[in-house]
Amino acid sequence: MSRSDLGWRLVRYRSQCRRFFSSHNQSFDPPISPTLRRVVVTGLGMVTPLGCGVGATWRNLIEGKCGVRAILPEDLKMDGFDEETRLYTYNQLTSKVAAVVPCGTGVGEFNDGLWLNSKDSRSMARFIAYALCAAAEALEDANWLPTEQEEKEKTGVSIGAGTGSISDILDASRLICDKQLRRLSPFFVPRILINMASGHLSMKYGFQGPNHAAVTACATGAHCIGDAARMIQFGDADVMIAGGTEASIDALSIAGFCRLRALSTKYNSAPEEASRPFDCGRDGFVIGEGSGVLVLEELEHARNRGAKVYAELRGYGTSGDAYHITQPQGDGRGAILAMNRAIKQSGLHSHQVDYINAHATSTPLGDEIEARAIKSVFSSHAISGALALSSTKGAVGHLLGAAGAVEAIFSVLAIHHGIAPLTLNLGKPDPIFNNNFMPLTTSKEMTIKAALSNSFGFGGTNASLLFTS
């Protein structure tokens, strides 16, 4: 081959390389920006210390009843331990009050035999069963039990929990200590995985849309609802079953929160007075259990099938404190960011919000800082008397991972029924309150067109949901 032929071939090869890399380096057009779809609430389901079912819970809440009671040794779920160990553990607990789901076969009671004691329930811990029970009510309420494959593929699940099944972990550790590890249930792992609430629900009904579970401590329920709404907004699903669940009334969970000095200890002899959000006598939260589940749906999808609509989810704000694992920043900056972001996304102005369901858990520091944040966000509207404010944890305690979902349902029901629920046990309000800026001490009939629900969790994670009529 002559030198000229070699040079010609080299030139041709370089030209081909330039064309190849030029064609493969061309930029794609920007992705099409989706038009965000509107999300509405078409079904509700609850399991709470005030009762099993939305009707029982809401009625008892509005009437000022309380779901907190004294705990007994048998509430600690230590069946595998000897009686001496059970009594010793019970006596060591500094907090002996809890908001327990009423169980039984009566109206408004959670039926263990139906949800937990069948052969098919061996892989199902109590927190999962609560979610399935609440979801069954929500789906029936929404009249949404799809049979077509396409409908199932466009229906998803987003249900989380804060701690899962700690009692199963305690039982497993006992087997190790007793050198009986071979007796460990093969269902141990599926029983403790938090995403299994969503997993069991999707399998039961054949839902093949997004299968999601947020775990953000006490903000879990709100984050699961907000995340689900965004999945609908962006077209990942037409319907989402969303909420939170928790079953943490057990020896290890209560002991852990006692050691953290987070639980109320002053009212062991007067359990119904223990959870007192915003009150000067508050000394910690009351641990609770239960589940709240909503059916969220794309607006046109709901209209086309003639579904009833409780409310629209217009705003979802999230933020991080970036400050401390358990304490919010003194100025409530994280809460302020979450509320402002929810309001901005909704397209409303702060003065258009009629009711706030506060996160207030009955802790000395947290309640005051949230009140300060609310005052900062709503300024003159907060002190005008037009903004109704309450914390429903006085009645149901703090449901941890389920709290945000249960309180979101309370906010939706406040809009639907035109009643703002009361704050129980508010005898002497915190000095941060004055004049017209005061939590409700009785349920108030009023027109509620927009309601905000706050949820804040350990690790400085915050979420606010804004619902409108």
From TrEMBL:
<dbReference type="GO" id="GO:0005739">
    <property type="term" value="C:mitochondrion"/>
</dbReference>
<dbReference type="GO" id="GO:0004315">
    <property type="term" value="F:3-oxoacyl-[acyl-carrier-protein] synthase activity"/>
</dbReference>
<dbReference type="InterPro" id="IPR014031">
    <property type="entry name" value="Ketoacyl_synth_C"/>
</dbReference>
<dbReference type="InterPro" id="IPR017568">
    <property type="entry name" value="3-oxoacyl-ACP_synth-2"/>
</dbReference>
<dbReference type="Pfam" id="PF02801">
    <property type="entry name" value="Ketoacyl-synt_C"/>
</dbReference>
<keyword id="KW-0276">Fatty acid metabolism</keyword>
<keyword id="KW-0275">Fatty acid biosynthesis</keyword>
<protein>
    <recommendedName>
        <fullName>3-oxoacyl-[acyl-carrier-protein] synthase, mitochondrial</fullName>
        <ecNumber>2.3.1.41</ecNumber>
    </recommendedName>
</protein>
<dbReference type="InterPro" id="IPR014030">
    <property type="entry name" value="Ketoacyl_synth_N"/>
</dbReference>
<keyword id="KW-0012">Acyltransferase</keyword>
<dbReference type="InterPro" id="IPR000794">
    <property type="entry name" value="Beta-ketoacyl_synthase"/>
</dbReference>
<keyword id="KW-0808">Transferase</keyword>
<dbReference type="InterPro" id="IPR016039">
    <property type="entry name" value="Thiolase-like"/>
</dbReference>
<dbReference type="GO" id="GO:0006633">
    <property type="term" value="P:fatty acid biosynthetic process"/>
</dbReference>
<comment type="pathway">
    <text>Lipid metabolism; fatty acid biosynthesis.</text>
</comment>
<keyword id="KW-0443">Lipid metabolism</keyword>
<dbReference type="InterPro" id="IPR020841">
    <property type="entry name" value="PKS_Beta-ketoAc_synthase_dom"/>
</dbReference>
<feature type="domain" description="Ketosynthase family 3 (KS3)">
    <location>
        <begin position="36"/>
        <end position="469"/>
    </location>
</feature>
<dbReference type="InterPro" id="IPR018201">
    <property type="entry name" value="Ketoacyl_synth_AS"/>
</dbReference>
<comment type="similarity">
    <text>Belongs to the thiolase-like superfamily. Beta-ketoacyl-ACP synthases family.</text>
</comment>
<keyword id="KW-0444">Lipid biosynthesis</keyword>
<dbReference type="Pfam" id="PF00109">
    <property type="entry name" value="ketoacyl-synt"/>
</dbReference>
